[in-house]
Amino acid sequence: MVWAGRLRALPLRILWGPRLRAWASTMAPPPRFFALELPGCTLAHFAVGTDAPGAPADPRVAALMATPGRSYSLCVPVAPGGDPGARVRAARLHQRLLQQLDRGPLKRCQLHRLLCYPPGGGAGTLQQGVLLHDPSDSPDTRRALLALLDSYLEAPRPSLGEFLVDDATRQLWQRRWELLDGQGWRQVEPEPVGPALEPDLHPAVPDLPSAGVFPHREAARAVLEACTAVIPEARAMLELVDRCPTRAQKGKFPVIVIEGLDATGKTTVTQAASESLKAVLLRSPPACVSQWREVFDDEPTIVRRAFYSLGNYIVASEIAEASARCPVIVDRYWHSTAAYAIATEVSGAVQHLPPAQHSVYQWPRDLLQPDLVLLLTVSPEERLRRIRGRGLEKTREETELEANSIFRQKVEECYRRMDNPGCREVDASPPREEVLRTVLSLIRTSCG
Length: 448
Ligand SMILES: Nc1ncnc2c1ncn2[C@@H]1O[C@H](COP(=O)(O)OP(=O)(O)OP(=O)(O)O)[C@@H](O)[C@H]1O
Ligand SMILES: Cc1cn([C@H]2C[C@H](O)[C@@H](COP(=O)(O)O)O2)c(=O)[nH]c1=O
Description:
about 450 residues; Rossmann fold; 2 domains; 14 strands; about 20% strand; elongated; binds adenosine-5'-triphosphate; binds the ligand Cc1cn([C@H]2C[C@H](O)[C@@H](COP(=O)(O)O)O2)c(=O)[nH]c1=O; mitochondrion; transferase; pyrimidine biosynthesis; kinase
């Protein structure tokens, strides 16, 4: 630690002469690209290890990492091949890391969401991470981070990088920490931090089909199967799903889904509409799995979304059975599962969402389709009034929606981009009776 403290005090250009730089360039690992979420949900992109020392990084990155203060990157490696077990382990490790960073001496540091990917990106290559910024550049922070990494006894262990600024040239560098067998931690040679172009597609998107927006039942099933040793409820959930037909078919009566952000009036509308139409009212996740919801809500995205996804297949079997007898109204279904998953995983703001028509907005090929999906929308102010008026316990997402209007915009925009079937938007701001009239009229004209 003393050594690291001294290093900090020396101007970097003394330590990092041309000969050392030439040597390092022959040994350099492939560059890594980073997407950093900054306050206000803007994304900054930078690269580490490109052969462009001297090129200035994004000024927002440089400003964040400028002295005084120090930034560290922590990223969770992914196993090549990307089998569901490895993905679940990496996701749980990332979650554990975030919880640990929120305690003790590290609590006073700022955390920024960080994604790390290789050149070209692609499915199975994305590392979830975090950028920790210590405004006071305390040596305790480095000590605490290394001690924290020591507590990870087995691979994969999060990787740690430390950012340095050459005060003379303003060039940014990253030095990674490595654990040498039996010899403790050492820092490897610094690598330059340079600019990076924003990729065409947000780097989280290629992973969505295996990590949150599952395109078919088996993809979600494989994730819960990989969790059964650590989450006993996963086995129980799988047993329920496996009792449902693989291709549930709709009966002759119409099936109408009501979607929307929390507190837009779905419960109110679905109850009134089902009474009026003498329809069966169902909801996703279905009542038979609601006792496990809290358990899965505390899990990382991949596990949580697998639970909601499989819940939809159970609802599908309920729809199949009920729609043979009468109309069916469903309070949330696959569109909610996909919209919340995409909005959570795609960092940054609305413009970073995958474009309309992208495959993540397509209905799973093996999931029973409804005849009509209505999306209830109200202004943010009215929605907040309704949340406060209700005064119930909030889920993590409701709290986030309340706090984060960008997240709310992303969820709503995802609903709008859903395809085949798409969502018909209904202004749900008027009084209850008027909203119900509009909904019933749309059902009659669309479903006969
Ligand atoms: N048209 C309306 N005008 C005024 N208040 C409404 C209207 N519709 C619903 N509310 C009230 O807003 C609150 C939220 O409504 P509701 O519970 O139906 O929303 P929700 O979309 O089902 O929420 P969640 O998804 O969180 O379960 C409730 O207190 C409800 O009585
Ligand atoms: C069905 C479903 C729900 N969620 C999230 C979205 C909301 O914040 C909560 C509340 O749902 P409620 O039961 O309607 O109150 O759950 C989700 O993320 N994915 C889903 O599939």
